[in-house]
Every structure is written in C-alpha cells, then in structure tokens.
Design a protein that fits this description.
alpha/beta; seven-stranded mixed beta sheet; 8 helices; 36% helix
Length: 264
C-alpha cells in the first residue's frame, strides 16, 4: 500500500484541513505519517488549563499523539523548530523559530523522513499558508523543497475553497444562524484560494466523527465551546465534509476526488 506523509506547522493543524483524508487513507490500509515543524509553543491557552509547571508545548505534544491515534496515523515526528507566532509578532524573529529557518536546512530534515518512509504522497499548505500564518507559509516552502530533495513526485497543497466558504456563510445567514468567532465575509481575500484554482475535492463525510474527535483532542486550542466544535452537526458537515487541495503540476480545475486513488 501507499505511504502518505502530511506536513503541518503546529499540533491541531493536522485535524482541520486534512483530518478526513488521513483517516480515509488509514482505513484503506495505507501508511499515514504526520510531521510537525513545531510543537505550537506560542499558542493561546486559557488560564488554569495547564497543570502546575506544565509547558504548553508539552500538553500540545500529548494532544497531537491522541489525535493521531484517532486518525489512524502510524508515526508522528517533530522537526524541532519553535512556533513563530502570528505574523508581525516578536516571535517571528526569535532564534530557532520556524519562520527564521533556512529553507534547505529545514527541508533536509523532512526529506530524510520522506526517504525513510519511501513516501508516495506529501501534503503541505498553499503558498499563502491558507491564511497567511508565517509557519504555514514556511510549511509550503520547506515541504515543496523537501519533496524535490527526496524525489516525492505527488505533492498536494491543502487549502480552503474560498468560494465555497462564502456560499456556506450565506446559507447560514439565510437559515438565521449566527455564530461568534467565525470568519468575516468582508475579509476573505487572503483566505484559501478561489475554487477555479483547486484540483482536488475529497468527500470526507464518512470520517467526520473521527475528524471532529481529532479536533476535540486538541482541547488546549479547540474547546467544546469553540466556533468549530459548537457547530450543530449539519453545519459541521457543511463546513468540513469536503477537504480541498491543489495538486502541484496538475491543471487547475477540480478533476480529482482522492489523494491516493491511483495508488489503491
């Protein structure tokens, strides 16, 4: 069977844009490997959530291991960089931050895993990191370079379908649903990509329970009262039932519905 390596910036990133395809691949008998650039050291956490003396990165590492088990991943690795914080914050410039990493040096760490696993498929993020987070942008740069180094020929950029998000938001408004903490429809120009740029739309409806459980495993970052998990089931399915990708080197336009279909 095939090996799928999924490269992410922080624990919890694996669950939101790719949790469904990871669970689907694992259930089909493929090997799933999740690689994190950082341990999410600079995420936000509610006061009193952590145990005395516990660092956030320690909790997030345990959370991602639980989520990986839910999704069926066979291996989890960390490249050892430090969370760079949001764009424009002092953490961007800190020594050891992923944003400051030399792309080739960081790519060598990932390429070694790709070679060891003889990876057939790698997932990264789109060129803007889906929404402009520095570590997500760096995932794209480092992941693409690592695939070149390792000779991994099939690379998918996880993204969001901006047009579909706007359609879903309009449907929610028409239905009279309002949820705090959601996206601003007037500030979407840098979120995801237009539908015409997408090559691959994967229906993960059958894996939504696992995807939601993986998100919930990251309780330090995604509480049960969060925008994501507070959605009624039908709205959660509408928002997260399809995962979107751009296959590098493929013509634009949705014409694929799986990452591993030709490898099954």
């Amino acid at each position: 069977m095939a090996t799928l390596v999924s490269f992410h910036a922080h624990p919890d990133d694996e669950a939101i844009p790719t949790g469904g395809v990871l669970a689907k691949a694992a259930d089909a008998g493929h090997r799933v490997v999740i690689v994190f650039a950082t341990r999410g050291e600079h995420g936000e956490v509610d006061e009193g959530f952590l145990d005395e003396g516990e660092a956030l990165w320690q909790r997030r590492e345990q959370e991602c291991l639980r989520a990986a088990e839910v999704l069926g991943a066979g291996r989890v690795e960390f490249l050892g960089f430090v969370d760079s914080g949001m764009m424009g914050t002092p953490e961007n410039d800190a020594p050891g931050s992923f944003w400051q990493a030399d792309v080739d040096e960081a790519a060598k760490r990932l390429a070694a895993i790709l070679e060891e696993e003889q990876a057939d498929v790698l997932t990264v993020y789109d060129a803007n990191g889906v929404y402009g987070h520095p570590d997500h942008i760096q995932i794209h740069r480092v992941g693409v370079r690592a695939a070149e180094m390792a000779g991994t020929g099939r690379v998918y950029e996880a993204t969001m379908n901006r047009d579909d998000v706007l359609r879903g938001m309009n449907e929610a408004r028409v239905a009279g649903m309002e949820m705090e903490g959601g996206l601003d429809p007037d500030a979407m120009d840098d979120f995801g990509v237009r539908e015409a740029q997408i090559t691959t739309a994967v229906d993960v409806t059958d894996y939504l329970d696992r995807k939601r459980a993986a998100m919930a495993a990251h309780a330090s970052q995604i509480s049960e009262s969060s925008f994501f998990l507070a959605m009624p089931p039908e709205y959660f399915a509408r928002a997260f039932g399809t995962e979107w990708f751009i296959r590098r080197g493929a013509p634009a336009g949705i014409h694929e519905h799986g990452l591993l279909d030709e490898l099954d």
